[in-house]
């Protein structure tokens, strides 16, 4: 592979800007230190003169207070030198070469090719990522620091050996050349200013302790803090400049690390792993969310990684993704289909380029590897299942189960429960997901039209995408309106491949509104065709009235549910003051206004609890939350303080009510659509 990595012109420009930002910080900092030293000397001299002028307890205390003011300011400016940023390792499991010789040999080969040092320690985490970390301090900019490597088991569970090799090479690529040191400097300086501005617990404790000694000291501490507030303002301006240059350089460093990875493993494994990791992350997150819902039942997974793979293949099948090398193959086209927005912004604060930019750049390199290994990366682990069991056990060891005796839950249990839920909540495949994410349309039952359209045409990809395109445009419209109303600092943006200035946003908003209306009209025409198509079939089989009645039942509940949800939104809106600082009198007044709305809601909840139609939905936890809220007129504010436990009862009750309505609505929707599906299955 004849390819030499060169530093691009853009990379060099960003490096120069980063260096200039560091110089700006150094100059600013030295000026602040000089001023602080001068102030400290002046305060010390003033303290001595004050005591010498008239020695007494008062002047001694005032002198000490004055002298300490300068020292306090100086301490604020130099405290970062002694600070150490330590990475926590709560869920990590350390692995050793004697246990995993094949994995260590591969990493040894990668660091040799990249030209960096072998990690100090290697850990395994539960996540879908890999990262290099170290305990950093001010001295890390000048002294060599050994770095540690964390490998996510969720990552190894979803990539091939070549893809894993590419990911490892990317991580080590950040440290492969001396030019990368600039990025490290910028990062450390960023951390220094960030810690000065936002991590002041130890400083605040020192200042408070000193103030508590005497009222005299408190006076000068207060004056010192006022000076420090001014220093913070100056540092914030420098921080913004430095952060911007750091973000720009970080994006270039990502491109550089991708090129290193492509040189080691080839362009194709870099690209394929980049686009699949979102699928792997979503799958693992859904598994973890599933088991979060099992905590109260004391159900604990034995191994979460077969479940992750199961969901990856399920999502792949649902989205018609091909399987290659035993893994779903995701493409940029698959990912872009999920991104419904046509807006583009030049995000100057982003530290990573978009996946699209990274994949396209690495593909353009067109690098290939001398060796190909498409085996699962788990084949590098001597006993992958055993390690997965350890990672899962450690991850769930801190979960607050209600009993020490937990029930183990394996992949077979997960598959049965998941497939049951899918069957219960999904609609017939012939609808091609047309009804998945939105309610069945409001149809005029007297407006039945003749149609010769086929079932396949009604649910074509073009028609299915109508709703998603509407949703995407509505989201874009809201943002464009914010730009036109000057509610965001955005000055320029892209839309549908064309660039716009903020002054053009208002005109564009009108154009988007017109596009939305046209798409809605097109969708409504298709909705009418769908209903008419099935109605005529139902008419032929003598099921027209049943079809209409099922639709009416669902439509009526949907309308009622929408009204209830609007009422809930109104109630929630009346509680927004809980997140604000306001007077006791205003708090009491707000709760008095809320009370009549609550009375109506409690009565509706009591009716729901007594309605047998909801019996199958009302599992014990939901029933308990609804009963508890509806059974009493709770007080939320008393003796000038919030009653948090009662407020939690309020929100639990509301959330349970909304959930029950949504489940009921979906059950009626499924009942109607399942019946509709049977009309063409005869």
From TrEMBL:
Parts forming coiled coils: 502-529
Required co-factors: Zn(2+)
Transmembrane segments: 18-51, 57-78, 216-235
Domain of life: Bacteria
Gene3D superfamilies reported in the protein's UniProt record: Metalloproteases ('zincins'), catalytic domain
Biological-process GO terms, alphabetical: proteolysis
Domain Peptidase M48: 99-364
Molecular functions per Gene Ontology: metal ion binding; metalloendopeptidase activity
UniProt keyword annotations, A-Z: Cell membrane, Coiled coil, Hydrolase, Membrane, Metal-binding, Metalloprotease, Protease, Transmembrane, Transmembrane helix, Zinc
InterPro entries: HtpX_protease (IPR050083), Peptidase_M48 (IPR001915)
Any matching Pfam family: Peptidase_M48
Matches recorded under PANTHER family: PROTEASE HTPX (PTHR43221), PROTEASE HTPX HOMOLOG (PTHR43221:SF2)
The name this protein goes by in its record: M48 family metalloprotease
Species in which this protein is naturally found: Flavobacterium alkalisoli
Phylogenetic placement of the source organism: Bacteria, Pseudomonadati, Bacteroidota, Flavobacteriia, Flavobacteriales
């Amino acid at each position: 592979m004849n390819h030499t990595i060169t530093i691009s012109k853009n990379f060099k420009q960003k490096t120069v800007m980063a260096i200039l930002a560091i110089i700006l910080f150094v100059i600013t900092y030295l000026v602040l230190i000089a001023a602080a030293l001068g102030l400290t000397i002046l305060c010390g001299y003033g303290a001595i003169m004050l005591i010498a002028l008239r020695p007494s307890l008062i002047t001694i205390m005032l002198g000490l207070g004055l002298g300490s003011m300068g020292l306090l300011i100086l301490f604020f400016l130099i405290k970062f030198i002694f600070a150490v940023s330590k990475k926590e390792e709560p869920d990590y499991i350390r692995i050793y070469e004697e246990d995993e010789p094949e994995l260590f040999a591969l990493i040894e080969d990668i660091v040799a090719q990249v030209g960096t040092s072998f990690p100090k320690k290697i850990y395994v985490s539960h996540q879908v990522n890999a990262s290099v970390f170290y305990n950093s301090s001010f001295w890390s900019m000048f002294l060599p620091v050994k770095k540690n490597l964390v490998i996510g088991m969720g990552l190894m569970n979803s990539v091939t050996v070549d893809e894993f090799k590419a990911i490892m090479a990317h991580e080590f690529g950040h440290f492969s050349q001396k030019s990368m040191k600039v990025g490290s400097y910028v990062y450390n300086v960023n951390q220094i200013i960030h810690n000065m501005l936002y991590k002041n617990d130890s400083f605040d404790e020192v200042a408070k302790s000193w103030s508590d000694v005497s009222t005299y000291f408190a006076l000068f501490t207060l004056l010192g803090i006022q000076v420090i507030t001014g220093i913070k303002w100056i540092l914030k301006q420098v921080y913004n400049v430095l952060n911007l240059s750091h973000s720009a350089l970080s994006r270039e460093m990502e491109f550089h690390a991708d090129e290193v990875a492509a040189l080691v493993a080839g362009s194709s494994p870099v690209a394929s792993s980049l686009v699949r990791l979102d699928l792997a992350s979503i799958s693992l997150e859904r598994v973890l969310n599933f088991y979060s819902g099992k905590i109260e039942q004391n159900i604990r997974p034995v191994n979460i990684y077969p479940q992750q793979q199961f969901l990856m293949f399920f999502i792949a099948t649902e989205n018609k993704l091909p399987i290659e090398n035993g893994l779903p193959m995701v493409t940029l086209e698959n990912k872009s289909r999920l991104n419904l927005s046509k807006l583009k912004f030049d995000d100057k604060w982003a530290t990573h380029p978009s996946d699209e930019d990274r994949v396209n750049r690495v593909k353009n390199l067109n690098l290939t590897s001398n060796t190909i290994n498409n085996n699962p990366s788990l084949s590098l682990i001597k006993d992958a299942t055993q390690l997965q069991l350890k990672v899962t056990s450690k991850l769930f060891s801190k979960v607050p189960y209600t009993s020490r005796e937990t029930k183990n839950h394996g992949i077979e249990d997960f598959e049965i429960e998941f497939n049951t839920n899918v069957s219960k909540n999904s609609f017939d495949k012939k609808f091609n997901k047309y009804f998945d994410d939105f309610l069945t349309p409001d149809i005029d039952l007297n407006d039945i039209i003749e149609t010769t359209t086929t079932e396949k045409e009604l649910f074509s990809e073009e028609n299915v995408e109508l709703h998603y395109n509407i949703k995407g445009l509505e989201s874009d419209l809201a943002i464009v309106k914010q730009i036109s109303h000057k509610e965001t600092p955005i000055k320029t943006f892209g839309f549908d491949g064309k660039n716009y200035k903020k002054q053009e946003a208002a005109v564009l908003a009108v154009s988007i509104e017109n596009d939305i209306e046209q798409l809605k009209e097109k969708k409504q025409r298709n909705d009418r065709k769908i209903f008419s198509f099935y109605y005529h079939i139902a008419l032929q089989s003598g099921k027209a009235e049943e079809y209409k009645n099922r639709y009416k039942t669902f439509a009526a509940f949907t309308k009622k549910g929408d009204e209830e949800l609007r009422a809930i939104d109104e109630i929630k809106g009346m509680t927004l003051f809980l997140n604000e600082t306001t007077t006791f009198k205003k708090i009491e007044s707000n709760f008095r206004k809320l009370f009549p709305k609550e009375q109506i809601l409690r009565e509706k909840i009591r009716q729901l609890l007594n309605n047998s139609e909801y019996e199958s939905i009302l599992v014990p936890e939901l029933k308990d939350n609804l009963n508890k809220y509806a059974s009493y007129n709770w007080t939320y504010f008393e003796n000038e303080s919030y009653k948090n436990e009662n407020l939690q009862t309020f929100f639990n009750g509301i959330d349970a009510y909304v959930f029950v309505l949504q489940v009921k609505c979906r059950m009626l929707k499924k009942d109607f659509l399942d019946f509709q599906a049977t009309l063409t299955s005869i």
